[in-house]
Fold these 2 entries.
Entry 1:
Amino acid sequence: MILNAILNGILYGGILALLAIGLNLMFGVVQIVHFFYGQLLMIGLYIIYLLVVGMHIPFFLACLIAVATVVAVNLLSHLMVVNPLLKAPLINQFLAMAAVMVILENLCLVIFGATYKGIPIILPILKIATIYIPISRLIAFVGSMFFAGLIYLFLKKTYIGLAIQAVSQDREIASFMAINQRLIYIITMALGAALAGITAAFFVPIYSVHPDFGGPFTVISFVIVVLGGMGNLPGGFLAAFIIGTVTMIFSTLLSSEFGAISAYLLFLLIIIVRPQGLLGIRART
Amino acid sequence: MLKVENVYAGYSEYKILQDISMEVPIGKTIILVGPNGAGKSTLLKTIMGTAKLTSGRIYFNGKLLNNKKTPEIIEIGISIVPEGGRLFQELTVFDNLRIGSYPKRARKHYREQMDKVFQLFPILQSRQKQIAGSLSGGERQMLAISRTLMSRPELILLDEPSQGLAPKVLVTLFGFVKEIKTQGYSLLMVEQNMRKALELADYAYLMESGCIKFHDEKTDFLNSYSIKKAYLGI
Amino acid sequence: MNLQRNVLLKKSLLLLILILIILFPLLSPSPYLTHISILILIWSSISTAWSYMGRFGMVSLCHGAFIGIAAYITAILFNYYSLIPLVGMLIGLLAVIVVAGVSGYACFRFGIIGHYFAITTLVITELVSLVIIVCRDITGGRLGYTINSIGPLPLYKEIIYLQFVDKTGFYYLALVLLLLTLYIWRKIDKGKTMVGLTAIGDDEEASSCIGLNIVRYKTAMFVISAAITGVGGILYAQYTMYLNPITMVGAGASLSIVFKSILGGMFTLWGPTIGTLIIIAMEEYVRVFFGAEYIGWSIIGYGITIIILIIFFPQGIYGTLREVLSKRQKHRIY
């Protein structure tokens, strides 16, 4: 049974890893703590629900539209909320983004209502010996790893990818490389949002969406990112698997609430012992 | 090639540069010397567009550069080796070079340029995959200069290239600069180490408190009494 | 001469308002109005207490946790062990002080500041909320927890049980709490600690070099802020006779406290109170005229307002007004 939990935990961690990449990119480049990231996930799910269940649009097309919508929402917030506050004290950015989070949640509440909305896509569960692996989670895991790989290649092999790395390491000198900072910000925000949208697509057969759906994912994503060291992509990647596994083990043994509790306790423990995260360097706030 | 006319510039209301006029002819090496705080680095930054020009004009090959954005200025053909090198510490040597060829004018030719750089600095080729942060001081400066070369500039600005380097390494460094000079690049170099810098110079300017106090051809400059006075009288 | 008269005018106006507020319940207002006033008084206290931290750059998102810890402990001790809430409250507050003290000290001692502090407090509040949910046999979990009603009692007994049939009792308790909170705000503002804490607010890393005193200041501030929040929470729970981990304890609850504070302006004495007043008034207006389903819109409304404020008027509504008015005054004198 533990083995089952660990395996499912690794699958879960892989999915979370994609979210962690999105957050880390945005933090590294734009230097913002993206407080409504989980809500982007929620919007993605709602859009897919609306399109598939409400308008009978084919699933894959709906997913594409959802990703595009989520990117649009994030870019809009970037232009209207984040950009004006880039030079303001960090607390202002943080609170403004918290406000956006509240707005998005309540927008979904008034538009869709408080009940859970699910899309009836049921996938089988694989049984190997005593191990149960839901195919939906397996697909999500493989898909997440695929996109994580794409991001890796993008960052390492393309000019824009290199530019993103450069800006996150030394933005002043990056401009001496003829890199247009504004453009890189926009691309990064789009990328981060796209990852949330893609994760939403994978979540469809796993979760039902409701206005409070985003909150726990925002928190767990932050836990992962801080644990791995903010802005540290490999760190976040590793931390995702750790948190995913821990959460799954306690979820299976006790209940889903205990899964979250264990992850939060682990976080609190590590942040005290090693504030820079597992692999992180001391960040200058 | 580069013409600076009556430029006043600074970072806020306080203007650091006061009525600066100078020029860099094609293919020549121009040195800016002077004490700390004279505004030498600020002049470089103004040319690159990171410091604000409040009055005056800067021309490059006839084009007006005033307050253009930095990426544009690089695309026009001016690149800078910043103070301290400022490499991307977590990227490899290879990636640092590659990002140097980010400007559109340089992208197509990056392989060619990289071969040139490796010819000039074979050590970099052997250390391609190494993380920039793990290089020695001299190697870092080498990489910094090479990165700038990757952008295929016509004019290269160097901001205190010798800073923080051991004396032994200094000799090698100035050897590199000389090599680049012979390759035909125009150089505008800010240096504290006046003696060594003047060996390479075609022309030199002395700056002090935001103004150009004195300028002359290399040979006369060295012997000038004013120089000695300026330096001793600080 | 003019200046003196202005100050006198201002002071007598304030006194008049204070007298009105004190006499308010005796003017037999509608129960609804009293209800709103009590809510405003309680949440103003909590928001102002939050601003003790917020104004110095320490964004705490775990004030909901303090509400939860204090209120639940008091309620549970009463329901299960018949421990009178007046005493139970002390135990609840003790728990809050311990939690705030320990977590505050841990954070400040190990340099967990800025974003990291905010996220850590977020995790703490969610943790407390989850623990309450998980202990559903005792706390009722997500469904919430009701406090046993005592029934009509003589006044002195009402105080002990913190249950008043007539809302007036709650009104005055809440008023006292708010006045106390404002008084403490004043004390902090004028005290020696102000200089140190402003330094912290401006540059946490630089001031961390000053030494252990900073850690002590911050922790003390955190504990005081938490304790007042705890009292407010207990009062709120006793007033509504109902507790719920989602609406009172988690991230959402904590954020709503933050928003009330910054809407009015967290750097001023009256800012959080004004912010609370505006938000509660707006919510009630929407509830009354449009129905409870439309509360979401009012929240969206003040969310947008907050964003606009943060970008253009970071001092908050009251704070900006004050600045504008004081600039005008300066012109008049000359």
Note: Chain A has one domain: 2-273.
Entry 2:
Amino acid sequence: MSDKPLFILICSQEHEKIQMAAMMASVAAVSETPVHVFVSMGAIYAFQKGLADDARYQGGAFSDVLKDKKAPDAMLLFEQGKELGDMTLHACSMALDVLGWQEDDLVDNLFDGSMGLTKYLSDAEQGQLVTL
Amino acid sequence: MAERKLIDARGAFCPGPLMELIATLKLVEIGDEIEVLSTDKGTAMDVPEWVAKVGHEMVGTEDKGDHWSVVVRKAK
């Protein structure tokens, strides 16, 4: 794994994509790779505070498997990655604006604030960018 | 005196066993060992890879038939 920062941009609310983002982010963060996650578009719905687990992600066959087998929840993996490694999460300021949401509408203790895409892409020039 | 802690992560899926190992490593002393029991096949490969990356020590990996035993020593 490279020591260059890993930038993970999540646009989709699909369970398997958010799960993959959470796995990549948490494992890289605890492996001494700085990770910067940016949540935009429909993905922001999955990070809404107070949702029931079965309403958090968009489904599909693999989502059913993840739930049936009780795979670690993506929100928990992000939380562990932040706690045990070097990880930041930012919400897309445009996504919050169009929904009329504030940072308080997002899952507690996960986000480091909101940010614009231009700033995020500028920062991402220092490392690897993965989009899900 | 070095101690050995046991994490029974059987039934947990990737990256659960690794994350449990890392959380426990933060709590123990240098020289202590942690044994992770896991039914997740990836753990037996992922943990040695992680240990080599961050500078701890692998004590051993053993196939117990229906699960894996992976032992790590805290080195820093």
Note: The interface with chain A takes residues 12-16, 18-19, 22-23, 26, 46, 50, 53-54 of chain B (CB under 8 Å).
